[in-house]
Amino acid sequence: MGYIRKLFPPYYKYPVFAFVGFEFVYSAFVLAISEAYYKSAALILPIAYRIFDDTVRKNKPGFDWSPEEREILEVYKLQMLVLWVISTVGVILCMVVIIPQFFDFNDRRGNPSHLCMVRRTLAWLLWFIVAIYVVVLGVAVIWAGLTAAPPLFTFTHISMELKKRSVHHRARGGV
Fold it and tell me: How many Å apart are CA 157 and CA 11, to the nearest integer?
């Protein structure tokens, strides 16, 4: 029973510092990647949509572009936005939890404490907040990871199909 009790607050400050520090680095890594993908999707997709719509209006044979495919790409952009927001919240949360680790606290009797938080209620509150964040980020990363292949395949397939049509059209003397 003693081992199970050690899984819950109060914690010693150095393991908390290490765990939340690693979570901070991971959240920053997810933030950077999702931000880059979201910004590139927000920049590239509207241009690609206009090109695809224009190709459909010209009734090019063999070119398929449907609202379902557009929706797949929009969901991908939404996934990157969700990851960006969640990881931003995580970076801020990790900073809020890490900052107290740099200070020394005294217990009620004035003795130096090596615990993360001297107040148990605050320790439990932060534990629940960080645990919920870790679960939410994990679910979001798994959601994006498992469902990222279809949008990328859709965009690549349609772009390559359009490129083939363009090369074929130019080879026949078109502009």
Answer: 52
pLDDT tens-place string over residues 147-175: 877 776 677 777 777 676 665 555 555 55
Q: Is the pLDDT of residue 1 over 70?
A: no
DSSP string, 55-109: HHHTT-TT----HHHHHHHHHHHHHHHHHHHHHHHHHHHHHHHHGGGGS-EE-TT
CA angle 34, 35, 36 (to 5 degrees): 90
Give CA separation, 144 vs 48, 70, 150, 152, in Å: 22, 17, 11, 12
Tell which residue, 67, 43, 60, has the closest CA to residue 161: 60
Domain boundaries, the chain: 9-170
Give the model confidence (pLDDT) of 72-100 as tens digits: 888 889 999 999 999 999 999 999 888 77
- What sign for the dihedral angle of Cα 144, 146, 147, 151? positive
Nearest-CA neighbor of 102 among 91, 120, 92, 116? 116
